Amino acid sequence: MHYPFWDSSISYGLLMGCIAVLHVFISHFAIGGGLYLVWQETLARKSGDQQGLDFLERLSKFFVLLTLVMGALSGVGIWFIIGLINPAATEVLIHNFVWFWATEWTFFIIEITAAIIYFYGWKTLSAKNHIIVGWIYFASAWMSLFVINGIITFMLTPGDWLTTGNIWDAFFNPTFWPSLVFRTGMSVMLAGFYALLIASRYPAHDFDGFKERLVRKNALWGLTGLILLVPSFVWYWKAIPTEITTNALAMMKIPITSMHQGYWYAGAAALLLIVFGLILPRRCSTVVAVALMICGLMLFAKFEWFRESIRKPYAIGGYMFANAVEVAHTPIYQSEGYLKHMTFRTGDDGADLFRRACQSCHTMEGSRALKPVFDGTDKEFIAAIIKGVEALKGNMPPFYGTEEEARLLANYIYDKIDKRPLSEIYGLHGAPLGKKVFEVRCGKCHERGGYNDKTASLIAIGETGYEEFIDTADDYGEAMPAFTGDEAEKEALIEFLKTLGHHP
Ligand code: HEC
Ligand code: HEC
User: Which residues have CB under 6 Å of ligand 2?
Assistant: First the structure.
């Protein structure tokens, strides 16, 4: 690791999530908006629909100014944040895709220029030239998506690049095409939703039914985009290697929950579009349009969250872990340790190991904090958890440091935790204390009714076997730690385990 670490009390994922989601919203608005404007302008000019043209001019102000200004600002924001939180992965992306970035920036400059000319040219350009500029705006916006899409999809599915090192294998990777169609659909949908939001503000009972026509038309745009999302998401899911998807379905709560929530938002959006867009367009109030916009944005955010979290434990699938540990270097770390290969060290080795191995996803006391989950435990337990961290819920990268480094990191965490026994921290005894002991000492790897559930095997052990099972806990799986709680905790745990069979 040749970069310094950045300490932040807000977790990296949250920061990245906020800035990235804002940026992808804006950039997809710009693409869909470009298509919407030039397409509708062509139709309106053909039919001499002046009211329609006035509406489009109004709309272009949002698409062009807000999306480009905010798009450019939030785009810079993404570079800023990824450079801070994962400079090594950012470096891989820059090195590999340098000409693609150059191409993308060229398209972005064309896009901005065309958008500005389009916006200021409503009155001054001829109809034909204005439409040509509109097409240039849309085409260059979509081409910048085309290029970025290759880089984003590469991170999840680098495909043959891992063995060939060929940049075209990296770019046209397994999820490239489905993701491109999906993102195009998303762009069309969001543009329709925004146009609908503006249309909803027109008076419902205008004399010539303008609102009615406009709302229907925009709802159809939204629906077309939404419908495109369905087959392209199925295609996308199928293009992800099955090892990833089957493991996710069995073990990964975060991406799968996001995906399911996405279905609900898609369903709600479809319902609103059909009822208030197609059947009762005059009733399409601003409240409905705002609700629709929220559904659309939430759907998109859930997709992005799904994509980011299903990639775990990697930042670049099979190549670099999310904490910037390079897969190819892991044998070196295992024999020589992390510390030796860190250019920037602070003198506090435990803290540096935390920064290297865990800080990309955890803080000690802020968001996704480690202190509270270790309160009331002991050094041996913490060290065991570090050494077996890949067996925990959360799809974490294994700890590749040495035995000694695991101990240093454990000491660092132990220094910060509440050292009173669990019974005192939580004021519990008997079976309720046992339940807590289970949560703290077992629940990180075995959730009851969830991740790697062992309730059935525990019941099968039977009441008389618990003591022996606990005493020999470290024999059961390579990552499973020995039980290092005190006698009172052990007794309470046994008492709790005895209740398992009675509460199915
Ligand atoms: C790639 C991101 C990532 C890295 C790196 C990472 N973790 Fe995690 N960790 C997670 C996620 C996500 C969860 C939460 C899973 C959940 O709540 O279902 C988690 C959960 C945990 C838990 C269980 C928390 C609980 O609620 O019981 C512990 C303990 C933990 N991590 C320790 C560590 C340690 C120690 C390190 C460094 C050696 C580390 N993690 C590195 C992502 C990561
Ligand atoms: C660091 C993660 C981790 C912790 C903490 C942990 N286990 Fe395990 N456990 C494992 C692994 C890994 C296995 C073996 C592979 C598997 O079955 O998933 C395992 C296996 C088991 C089994 C199955 C044994 C068999 O032969 O069927 C049971 C039961 C079990 N654990 C109970 C517990 C209990 C009770 C605790 C708390 C005292 C606990 N585990 C703590 C990781 C852990």
Answer: 385, 388, 391-392, 441-442, 444-446, 452, 454, 457-458, 473, 476-477, 479-481, 483
